[in-house]
Design brief:
isomerase; globular; alpha+beta; Diaminopimelate Epimerase, Chain A, domain 1; 5 helices; Phenazine_PhzF-like; 2 domains
């Protein structure tokens, strides 16, 4: 069997930055266990599988497809950067001419469209609720200003004090193994550490910064995370009183996201892409 496979760096326009995702185009259904085996073989934070929903569907002409996402260890209910990568493969490699692509996923229908050099994802917007205690979370000796939990996504949001700068977040060292040891209830599946942006200095222009850790899914640190920004968008919109925001995820690779809260309670998250690999899986 041969399966076309691509690697796309998402939320960047420069190769070898942003968040890499593998994208597989499935002409026919795979045996269930092969999804996880392929994701483990690709060994990226996410592998996306695009499938035709009907026998007559075509990757070049159709506008609606099935989409699933797998880390090297688990299937996940939502992945923004791999959705961006999937849309990029259809728009840029398969030359799909539809104005809007719809993906049927575990998180419902997600839509992607092109606007100039960005691909815009229409994602759910997830609310957060105050938490009293950090419990297991150790952010070194840094001061935590706010602690929130998103029950829909099982993500814990830790906001650092406004006294810190982007460089402090970039230099932060955390022990993801200690998270696994301390949190075994299943309540938390991802940890977002976030910081308010600066209005001055060399990094001015970003409304907020973040880093994201998901060792419970086999991802020690994810470079740029669309699903985390579906949580961050609601939090920072409330805190800043803004509907339009520019965010930067401060991983080693780094990536930028343009955010627009919609009137229908969802969020548009836009990013650029760089396609870095084209090939075939053969087995």
């Amino acid at each position: 069997m041969q399966i076309p496979v691509f690697t796309v760096d998402a939320f960047t326009n420069r190769p070898f930055s942003g968040n890499p995702a593998a994208v597989c185009l499935l002409e026919k259904d795979l045996d269930e266990d092969l999804h996880q085996k392929i994701a483990a073989e690709m060994n990226l934070s996410e592998t996306a599988f695009i499938r035709r929903l009907h026998p007559g569907d075509d990757f070049t002409k159709s506008s609606c497809f099935g989409l699933r996402w797998f880390t090297p260890t688990n299937e996940v209910p939502l992945c923004g950067h791999a959705t961006l990568a999937a849309a990029a493969v259809l728009f840029h490699i398969r030359k799909n001419k539809n104005a809007v692509l719809t993906f049927v996923t575990l998180s419902g229908e997600l839509k992607a469209r092109q606007v100039e050099d960005h691909i815009i994802l229409d994602l759910p917007l997830y609310l957060t609720y105050p938490q009293v205690s950090q419990n297991f979370i150790s952010i070194g000796d840094m001061v935590v200003q706010d602690l929130r939990y998103s029950p829909d996504t099982k993500k814990l949001l830790v906001r650092l004090s406004d006294a810190y700068e982007r460089s402090d977040l970039e230099e932060l060292q955390v022990s993801t193994q200690s998270f696994l040891s301390a949190e075994k209830t299943g309540k938390v599946k991802g940890l977002i550490v976030t910081l308010k942006g600066n209005s001055s200095g060399k990094h001015k222009g970003h409304d907020f910064y973040s880093r994201y850790f998901a060792p419970w899914y086999g991802i020690l640190e994810d470079p740029v995370t669309g699903s985390a920004h579906a949580v961050l968008s609601s939090y920072w919109s409330e805190q800043l009183g803004k509907k339009e925001m520019l965010a930067f995820q401060c991983s080693r690779r780094g990536g930028e996201l343009k955010i627009s809260l919609r009137s229908d309670g969802r969020v548009d998250i836009a990013g650029k892409i760089a396609i870095v690999l084209k090939g075939n899986l053969i087995f």
